[in-house]
Model the fold of this input.
Amino acid sequence: MRVLFLTHNHPRLQPGGTEAFAHGLFRALRDMIGVQGLFLAGTTELLRERRPGTLLQAAGAASDEMLVSLDHFDRFYLSQGDVYGLASLAPMIERLAPDVVHLHHPLLWGMEGIDMLRRAAPRAAMVATLHDYFCLCPREGQLLTADGRLCHGPSPDSCRRCLPDRHGSDFTLRDLGIRSSFAAFDALLAPSEFLRGRFAAAGWDAARIRVMRNAVAAAQPAPPRASPDGRRDRFAVFGNVNRFKGTLAALVASARLSREGVAHRLDIHGGTTWTSEEFRAEFAAALDAAPEAAHRGAYAPEEMATRMAAADWVVVPSIWWENAPLVVLEAFRHGRPVICGDVGGMAESVRDGVDGLHAPVGDAAGLAGVLRHAADTPGLWERLRAGIRPPPDFAAAAAAHLELYRDLVSSRTRRTPHAIRSRIPAAPC
Done:
């Protein structure tokens, strides 16, 4: 079997959950199962300067992983303006003749990229994983209102309140364009029931969306932190530092605990790349106000176990719904209970009182109360740690995806053994 994977970035250039999962899955299919194929990662001049005369560059030493320069992208319409550049990829894809094309994000590739893929690989089964809400929410896929409240789904009126400079018809055209393009896929995947439900609530056909859980690399668990007094009061936040991830709320909660005399430590692990100067100033001020907190900076995947070893709890303080955070799986891989918001994909991933604790989302005072409870309750950490189920690894994810691919290829062959579709039907998702 030959597979073509496409993502909006490569984890070598910018760490992110979607990129990490897609890349790990591709390598597991290749190295553990023997699937052949190609991993194409979109990029822009912000991350890698375009080389003269070509859209393609090597991503590293692997010959089956390449970067594709994809500037000229419209983030509102999810539209790639460089259709000539996309068309230049078609001969390469035709030669590859993939049995399966798996798109892991429409960013940079755009709806035009989906059209190109269908034309260049007309016999292939096409799969898309809906890793987040970009297809629903024109405000960077966050499903947050302009004043920071949770949004329960797009509508012409609510979207215009967030983006008042847009004409109402812009939102309709965006929605129709995305749904029409995604009709090209034989299967849509979601990493959580919650995310699937958000798409269904927005009018997408839930029968076309199946849940396929995320996975993390198998690893030797970090040993529990030595605690002579038995107190479990070391908290850690992992991931990109930004407003949506709730880093500021975590720091405010830590500052509150310090004022109340609650012994604890909070370590922030992650970089501040691509954040605004305004946010970085807020972050610095919040750090100064939280004497028991420290920013440990960005980290490489191979550093995760070492950093995890210094923590008792992993905190996921995101102020948005989240989808299926990989950091939760990483925490469970290392036997760390998780404290997270009580909504969305993160609440689905963490069982309150079983393998972690839920805190009121976006509420620093409420989060502080949960952190205090975690630190001050004897035996709680041990009980929750015992409730952790080992998360799926990439071997299991690769096997599940391969089974899906085979079913789709077989079904497509039976349905249209000789047909080659020359254009994408404009059918609703």
About this structure: Residues 293 and 426 are 52 Å apart (CA to CA).
